[in-house]
Description:
- With 359 residues, this protein is an alpha+beta fold.
- 61% of the residues lie in helices and 18% in strands.
Amino acid sequence: xxxxxxxxxxxxxxxxxxxxxxxxxxxxxxxxxxxxxxxxxxxxxxxxxxxxxxxxxxxxxxxxxxxxxxxxxxxxxxxxxxxxxxxxxxxxxxxxxxxxxxxxxxxxxxxxxxxxxxxxxxxxxxxxxxxxxxxxxxxxxxxxxxxxxxxxxxxxxxxxxxxxxxxxxxxxxxxxxxxxxxxxxxxxxxxxxxxxxxxxxxxxxxxxxxxxxxxxxxxxxxxxxxxxxxxxxxxxxxxxxxxxxxxxxxxxxxxxxxxxxxxxxxxxxxxxxxxxxxxxxxxxxxxxxxxxxxxxxxxxxxxxxxxxxxxxxxxxxxxxxxxxxxxxxxxxxxxxxxxxxxxxxxxxxxxxxxxxxxx
Length: 359
């Protein structure tokens, strides 16, 4: 059962974390406001939307972003104070083992990890939907289509090709559609251009020619215009990676399956995001272990030495994660490995520091 000393450590841990995260969020909001205030004024953004649509939905995103780092800093800060005031020595002298002392730390870390999982997979996607819509309206427009010679699969065996797409006129130029069954071409449609009708939700194929193949029989069709409903929209052509921030875990998983069907080169970005949403909260546990092992000893340098070492390690962890995910998105490293290997390596480091820590 939890004792008074456990509640004391949990209170110190969570209190320091939320105080530190509140300060950094306040600083981030001030810097963000100073950067975007000209856009808000120029585009006449309403004050209530700036506060309650943008910044209220801005806060959960940055709380989750900074959560592992400030968990680590909170552990280093208040544990160093406990060590500096000889409170840890008193706890160990009273018969509490060092491993028993870790229990309230890990209870707090598990609570913060559970909060991070909830934020990443459920609350933040909803908040990002409103925040990004606000940015597209009052700060910057969403990304347009810049690719050329696009060839994607829109359903099993059905492929489309287009040379270019004009977002203003919703027109795909040099458009073609192919249907391949059991490795054989059964249908091919080609046209000068295809126009997306957003009201009808269909494509109008202009000046087309169609080739229909049925075994040894083949026939050709020509026409000036053909209305057709195809299982893709202009949104499928415009790859804005920020859109994945709006997806909850189930939506992200379904979107990955769809992007893989299309043969999209951005699949790895979505897979990294999916695995990161589970691995990032786990980093809270790893950094808590390192923080306790590193700062539980009273040293001559005091809190400053512990904080310096802790910040250096935390930035090394963040750098390692950025490098490994880059190898996944730009190289051949598997997304699961790229996201979890920093936790594994720093977890081993934490176990080693815990083993050599004075008890």
